Task: inverse folding
């Protein structure tokens, strides 16, 4: 076959969700009719420590195992390493299986900020090829953390070089290619409900008030950690957007979603102010007098969110 493209791939651009890998995962699963919400629901965010900017840690992880996730969505994930990535991609597409491929931004001309300057792990979704033009059809975005994923073409040779760069530079990854395929037999409804309930329980048990931790550290921000603070505020702003999607799907409560949306909007404001402080190299923008009203409003909203989540 000279060329082929899998139809029905939908890039996810509603918000930034975790990493580029998860955006590609959502796009790949869309080919099988799996909604983005099923990937987003399977994500749990925890604050691990918050005693100061030098002792602030958090983690974001999947709630259920890969096996449970495959049964829940009806799509199995196969991770492996391919010796010849061009052949592996074409073989997968011919079998109607989109594939996620590891890449090194150092080798990607479209990533201008890092091309030939910095090694950075990246993932793209490959779902089409043209042998005559020697190009792949891929899902890609413009720069780190931008949610403008769309269809692009990539020369065979560029994908191959970036793939080999990924395998050479990022040996901690146990896989470099992930293929998708439908499960042979769908899971019975009651077993799917059991998996859903396992996820649902984590939403009831979460310590929602802990998500205010970085905002309570505002007074401890110094010039040495201003940039770290800004990056953290940006992460938490996206967290509130993710929480809104999760709670809308699971709880279906309009009041809860409205409060989470209010948290997200105020968190975006704090993130923008922190960005200004870093760019202008002036910490006066991060003084409590400037932000205490917004953070005070966030504290009230978060208390109401935690109470609603316990009662639903």
Result:
């Amino acid at each position: 076959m000279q060329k082929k493209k899998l139809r029905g791939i939908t890039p996810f651009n509603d918000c930034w969700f975790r990493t580029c890998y998860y955006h590609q995962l959502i796009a790949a699963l869309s080919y099988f009719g799996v909604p983005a919400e099923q990937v987003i629901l399977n994500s749990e965010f925890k604050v691990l420590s918050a005693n100061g900017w030098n002792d602030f840690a958090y983690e974001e992880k999947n709630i259920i195992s890969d096996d449970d996730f495959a049964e829940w969505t009806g799509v199995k994930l196969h991770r492996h390493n391919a010796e010849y990535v061009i052949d592996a991609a074409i073989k997968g597409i011919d079998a109607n299986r989109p594939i996620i491929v590891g890449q090194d931004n150092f080798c990607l001309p479209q990533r201008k900020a890092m091309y030939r300057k910095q090694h950075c792990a990246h993932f793209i979704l490959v779902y089409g090829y043209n042998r005559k033009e020697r190009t792949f059809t891929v899902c890609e975005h413009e720069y780190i953390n931008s949610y403008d994923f769309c269809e692009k073409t990539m020369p065979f040779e560029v994908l191959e070089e970036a793939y080999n760069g990924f395998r050479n530079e990022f040996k901690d990854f146990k896989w470099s290619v992930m293929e998708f395929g439908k499960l042979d037999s769908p899971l019975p409804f009651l077993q799917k409900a059991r998996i859903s309930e396992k996820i649902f329980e984590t939403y009831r048990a979460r310590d929602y008030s802990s998500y205010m931790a970085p905002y309570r550290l505002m007074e401890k921000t110094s010039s040495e950690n201003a940039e770290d603070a800004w990056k953290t505020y940006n992460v938490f702003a996206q967290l509130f957007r993710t929480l809104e999607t999760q709670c809308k799907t699971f709880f279906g409560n309009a009041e809860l979603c409205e409060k989470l949306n209010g948290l997200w909007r105020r968190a975006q404001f704090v993130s923008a102010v922190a960005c200004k402080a870093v760019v202008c190299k002036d910490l006066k923008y991060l003084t409590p007098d400037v932000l205490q009203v917004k953070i005070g409003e966030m504290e009230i909203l978060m208390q109401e969110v935690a109470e609603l989540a316990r009662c639903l």
User: Anything to note?
Assistant: The longest helix spans residues 254-280.
